[in-house]
Design a protein that fits this description.
6 helices; 34% helix; alpha/beta
């Protein structure tokens, strides 16, 4: 079964393909010839995920899902949240600059509680149905970077129950416990109901 994941982020794409695996042929935006930069102008994760999925459904007439993910830090009032990818400003997604800004703003604050939240919006054209799925993983922001794997804020996010950051745990473990994994699991359960 073919389905489009509205992203050209290769990290996200390989994570999703690992999770959805043999049941789905997951296509990226470039696989369907979509090279536009789909605007993410909503002020919620749900809103952004829906904007991206709706754009593909409207313009390419194919069922698709899109995600938006935010890191929500308690001591910063839930920031960077929906602005996680462009927290430090500038052009593109500068993970190093984003981490530097976050660590600087947290400073010596002892409340390091944070959570990653992913929202996936699925548009199934044949059913005329839109569904959202949410995945959350709670954890702490470390005081410095640890680990080489992963992307984004992975080197400074330590999930609850582990003594290493996402970037140290490696993709196999991360793909089982992450916010995206939890949201994708709900998505997969929903999609597989139809295929069995």
């Amino acid at each position: 079964m073919k389905i489009v994941f509205a992203t050209n982020n290769l990290h996200k794409l390989s994570e999703i393909r690992d999770i959805l695996g043999e049941h789905f042929d997951v296509l990226s935006l470039s696989d369907i010839g979509c090279h536009e930069d789909i605007p993410e102008t909503a002020d919620t994760l749900e809103g952004n995920a829906l904007l991206k999925a709706q754009y593909v459904a409207d313009n390419y007439h194919i069922s698709c899902f899109a995600d938006d993910t935010g890191l929500e830090v308690d001591a910063l009032g839930g920031a960077p949240g929906v602005y996680s990818a462009r927290y430090a400003g500038g052009v593109g997604h500068d993970s190093e600059a984003n981490m530097r800004k976050l660590l600087k703003e947290l400073g010596e604050n002892n409340n390091r509680k944070a959570r990653f939240r992913t929202v996936i919006a699925l548009i199934e054209l044949e059913k005329g149905q839109t569904t959202c799925f949410e995945g959350i993983v709670n954890g702490q922001i470390t005081r410095e970077r640890h680990g080489q794997e992963g992307f984004g804020y992975d080197p400074i996010f330590q999930p609850d129950g582990y003594d290493q950051t996402f970037a140290q745990l490696g993709m196999d473990i991360k793909n089982h416990i992450s916010h995206r994994a939890k949201a994708v699991e709900k998505l997969a359960t929903h999609l597989l109901k139809k295929t069995h």
